[in-house]
Amino acid sequence: MSIAKLTFLTVKIVFVHDHREDFSCCESVWLTLHKKREELKLMKRKVLSITMLLILSLVFTGCGNQSNDSAQNSSDTIKVGALFNQTGDQASLDVPGLNGFQMAADEINANGGVLGKEIEVIAIDGKTDQNVCANGASKMVDVDKVMAICGLADSNYALAAGSIAQKANVLFLTSGATLPELPDQVGDYFFLVPFGDNIQAYAGAEFVASDLSAKTAYMLTDKGMDYTMTLAKFFKERFNEINGADSILLEDSYQTADVDFSAQIERLKGLKVQPDVLYVASDPSKCGVIVKQMRDRGITQPIIGGDGYDTPLLTELGGEGANHDVYFTTHASLENPSEKVQNFVSTYKETYGHEAENAFAALGYDGMYLIADAITRADSADSAAVRDALLVTEGFDGVTGKISYTDGNRVPNKSVTILTVEDGTFKFVKEVLPE
Amino acid sequence: MLNQRDKKLTLVSLVLLALVLFSLNQFLPGYYLRIINLIGINIILVASLNLTNGFTGVFSLGHAGFMAVGAYTSALLTVPIAQKASLLPDLPLWLMNIQLPFAVALLAAGIMAAICAVIIGFPVLRLRGHYLAVATLGFLVIIKVLLTNLDDFTRGARGISGLPGITNSWWVYGTMVITLYVLWRFLHSSYGRGIMALRDDDVAAQALGVNITNHKLMSFCIGAFFAGVGGALWGDLITVISPNFFSFNQTFLLVEMSVIGGMGSLTGAVVGASLMTILPELLRNLEGGISLMGVTLPPLYGLSQLILAVLVILVLIFRPQGIMGRWEFSWKHFKKHNKEEI
Prior knowledge:
The complex is a heterodimer. By secondary structure, chain A is of the alpha/beta class. Helix content of chain A is 50%, strand content 18%.
């Protein structure tokens, strides 16, 4: 056999499969090659198992290292968790939230920290996924040993993460979820930084009754969302208190996925007595669409809504229609001339290269300062002591207004800002503190 | 089907699993235990998905719907009565006043999911391929809308919170072992052989006397049963459930695990579920910005999703049948290699 043929067969037999008959001429060559093949198989297996072992050991040492690091650092820094949905549907609210939170922490550290210690922010992306949020909270609590967690603008995710913090008795401040009953659902370590939906709906009702001297109202509500249902419920409650039981002329509704509101508009036009104002409780994606369709169909009454309107989408989708008598209640106005707000606005622009996207940046910022303030007053970074201090917070001067937690209530008593739209930008109208 | 040696080996490995779980429960902090529990739950979910998608060839996208049914059923049965009164004041009295042991609730969760599977299975399983996939997706949408609007039972979009959180490693891995055992026995029964036959060639299978509708429905129901049980465990682990959680994303995550592990194999389900639960958690450490040998990387959120997506694409290109393909774990592979006589 020629050498070339032998090499070819060797390759074939080792790597492809055995062809004993090819070797009919020399049995012994086949035997040796067969042995080689078996050895190679064994080696492959060994290599595979060694790689697996290596990967496993890497994983475990990786985990081990981390916990060692955190143990060493725990004495000279105060660890605070920042759990925001940086990716996914919630990102438009939570990315500004984390920016504001991080900015506040940097400011505090630049001014010497709290109790002489630096604040270390442990940021985890919740990915708009309840599992990831829950795992993230669990990691912060068990591995990083944070004393407080702040974040999450949606109540469902805040519930998932908050209950884990609650179990470990770690403070949890939600930066954006506004359901007033959240703290009672989770437990005594759960606080809201924003006002509850009841407060902003009350503020809306009081504003239209006093400033727009409305005696009658029409309501349109998204039936598929808890946020809008809560807003509508409390607006009606307060408006009825002020103007009597028959003051709501029509309560209409739509489903979250609806895009055509002509049926609702026809019903509104069909009313014998036209209402003074229209309260439209909708989410960020629909407010602009509704406003545009109503204005296009010749409806001119003032439209008022909740903090869901605090989004560029209102003017982008609402177009010219949004410029006429559209008001909404929200957390803060970045136009507010107070020094605190203007400092925040300019620092934010310096740090991130653009204006703050919305009020959620300010809420994240206030969240960090609320924690720092409570730590200072408690004179300790122990979660229980800080919680007790936070519970008696009074008149804390934040970007989003004066924040007080009164009578053991973990939903803050704070002022509501009312904005309107002029030439495509949001203009400050007034700040109110509803009873 | 197992000989004496294999039985012994299985027993030994079960005892080993219990010992490992026991020691992990002693020494590991809660976060790691949580991940370990999540792996177990995902194995239950993916194995049941593999039964319908991989073994029966009924490509269902409604798995998250069955999870939702299971999760809500067990939540309604296990939330303490006092809490129910404040959370769900409009519940019918008989539901209001019961609180069942977790095991019974899990069973009920599975049964409810299986009942749903029968109801939608009758019309839907007559469809094939894409039509069937879209129809099961429709089921998922229906379940979500129902959960959002049945305010009296589910609190709508607010979701039910304060589930008791009984789920621990023992519940998860106990259920997982039972699930895998039942599925394994089913697949090795004449029914199991029947569904695999109709997956490969339904006309030939029918000619051999396999009743297509019955077989498909049975595997669909068993898959849904364990999806319901898995969903119940999952909800109890997170302690909050809301209609949003059982979205198309959740289904897709499970399908992804099953495709990566190998759709036609229970071993594939175990591998896929473990891998796709652990990897995102490990990759998360990269996201927060790390410093390695003096070089500090800024935080890059979304990086882990990118890496995972690339991995999925690579697996699909180079190993479209999944890591395990149709290969099953068996003690036979560990037999001493007889010196092949030449």
